[in-house]
Amino acid sequence: MPRHVAFLRAINVGGHVVKMDRLRRLFEGFGHSIANVETFIASGNVIFEAPSRNARALERAIAAGLGEALGYEVATFIRSPTQLAAIRKYEPFPLRLRGARTERDALYVGFLPEPPAPAAARALRACGTELEAFQVRGREAYWLLRGRFSDSKFSGARLEKILGMPATLRNVTTVSKLAAKYA
């Protein structure tokens, strides 16, 4: 059975606390022959197997099931291990744009349901400052933050507003670990 990685929005943030064992049980109860469910850190990363290769149908079913079980909307973004490997290898910011990096710098990946409109992608890139830079490639938005998260005025909510669609952010370190573990 194909393996899938689901990135869930609004899990263990903003007062929405969900224990990982409960999240695994919920996934196993969704049908679609979902099996071998694992979670990776407590931020809404769920790895599972399902015979369906239709990620959009799985996203809709999982989001509906989580919404019903948890009582709030949980946007769901599914990627295959192959897609994660490509995300991990992609360098969204050439060295000339990155400049000298420090250990406090961070790179985030925003998972999107579909590629944003070109005008929305341009609007996101235009938000770049000395502190941060943005890039879009396919169904992912990349955010390079030079410094601490608390130094930025940018947020996931602003990302969603600019792109006109839901998104969930993960540090590239988390994405790299998932890609390495499940590739």
Kindly describe this structure.
The chain is an alpha+beta fold. It has two domains: about 80 residues, Alpha-Beta Plaits (2-Layer Sandwich); about 100 residues, Alpha-Beta Plaits. About 35% of the residues lie in helices and about 25% in strands. It is built from seven helices and eight strands, in the order βαββαβααβαββαβα. The chain has a four-stranded antiparallel beta sheet with strand order 2-3-1-4. A four-stranded antiparallel beta sheet has the order 6-7-5-8. Strand 6 and strand 7 form a beta hairpin. Helix 3 packs across helix 7. The longest helix is centred in the middle third of the chain and has 16 residues.
Quickly list its features.
Alpha-Beta Plaits; alpha+beta; 23% strand; 183 residues; four-stranded antiparallel beta sheet
Biggest beta sheet summary: 4 strands, antiparallel
Distance between the termini: 14 Å
Return the structural class: alpha+beta
Radius of gyration: 16 Å
Quick one: overall form? Answer: globular
> How do the SSEs run, as a string of H and E?
EHEEHEHHEHEEHEH
Strand order in space, largest sheet: 2-3-1-4
Count of individual domains = 2
CATH class of the largest domain: Alpha Beta
Count of runs of 4 or more consecutive helical residues: 7
Please report the total strand number as a whole number. Answer: 8
In helices, the fraction of residues equals: 25-40%
Strand proportion, as a percent range, falls in: 15-25%
